Amino acid sequence: MKLSIKQINDLITGCTLAAELKPTDSRLRHFITVFGYELSTEGHYREITKTISEQKVQSTYFQIRDYEIPVEYYDNGLEISDSILESDRILEGICGIYNLEEELTRYLSDFSLLIPEWKCGNPL
Fold first, then answer.
1. Per-residue pLDDT for 62 more than 80?
2. Domain for residue 97, yes or no?
3. In a domain, 124, yes or no
4. Who's near 52: CB < 8 A, 6+ residues apart?
5. Is the separation of the CB atoms in 31 and 23 below 8 Å?
6. Beta carbons of 21 and 30 less than 8 angstroms apart
7. Which end of the chain has fewer CB atoms < 10 Å from its terminal CB, N or C?
8. Overall number of domains in the chain
9. Domain of 24?
10. What is the pLDDT of residue 48?
11. Around 115, how many Cα atoms within 13 Å sit in the side-chain half-sphere?
């Protein structure tokens, strides 16, 4: 399974992608987010540049965050902090799109579900 060219371009230019998944319980909502970042020569995180290049496809680092939240927090527009998450798994340091695609297969059976997070309703 592969990410689309649009999804790749979004990720390597700083757009976070997200999807709502099937929750483990009816009182929860389940989300996954993916974003790219760059590392400075000193190994510090830095904001990703807005340029598109083949080199960035393999040199960008990615983070996947998989979490569930109580439905009442989401539906009532309540503030959501890490302390109320039912589950929260973060996988970071994934280098390159190919490695990201490999990791994403553990979470998604259809990559087309990943859309810009502002379209998804991702609460975090």
1. yes
2. yes
3. no
4. 9, 12, 13
5. no
6. yes
7. N
8. 1
9. 5-113
10. 87
11. 9
